[in-house]
Specification:
The protein is mainly β and about 130 residues long. Helices cover about 5% and strands about 25% of the residues. The protein has one helix at about 120-130; strands at about 15-20, 25-35, 40-45, 85, 90-95. It has a five-stranded antiparallel sheet, with no helix packed on it. Strand 2 and strand 3 (about 40-45) form a beta hairpin. The longest helix is centred in the C-terminal third of the chain and has 9 residues, at about 120-130. InterPro entries: YPEH2ZP. This is Protein FAM72A. It comes from Acropora cervicornis.
Length: about 130
């Protein structure tokens, strides 16, 4: 079962996300979402930070004890564990298939492994995009 995902999200499909502009693979653990404040805004999210793909924006700060740069995230409310969001207009989603290669992968069956978010072979990614 995927880490921190509320049972209500277990039946949602897992998607791979690619940047619409530079075609870079963003993640292999995406989920379609809607902005709760405005349900006309379609988003995609992921539970692992995309490596070498995005830069955090907004104010950061340091404490008196160290010079580490800190950014806050709201984790006190009920959530699906996804803190990295992408506008649907900026990404190209492709549904992932399960180990059989036939059924669409669901969040309830996705492992907790960070390797699930990596793209070991771009040719496999392209093959699945063509399907």
């Amino acid at each position: 079962m995927s880490r921190g995902v509320h049972p209500a999200f277990h039946t949602k499909s897992v998607v791979k996300l690619e940047c619409k502009y530079c075609e870079k693979n963003i993640c292999a653990r995406g989920m379609r979402a809607l902005l709760l404040a405005d349900t006309n805004v379609e988003l995609y999210s992921t539970d692992f930070p995309p490596e070498n793909a995005i830069q955090l924006i907004g104010a950061d700060y340091s404490t008196e004890n160290c010079e580490c740069r800190i950014k806050d995230s709201c984790i006190t409310s009920c959530n699906n564990g996804h803190f990295w969001m992408f506008h649907a207009s900026a990404v190209i989603p492709a549904e992932r298939l399960d180990q059989t290669g036939i059924q669409i992968m669901l969040w309830g069956s996705l492992s907790n492994s960070k390797e699930e978010n990596e793209f070991p072979d771009d040719s496999m990614w392209m093959e699945e995009c063509i399907r």
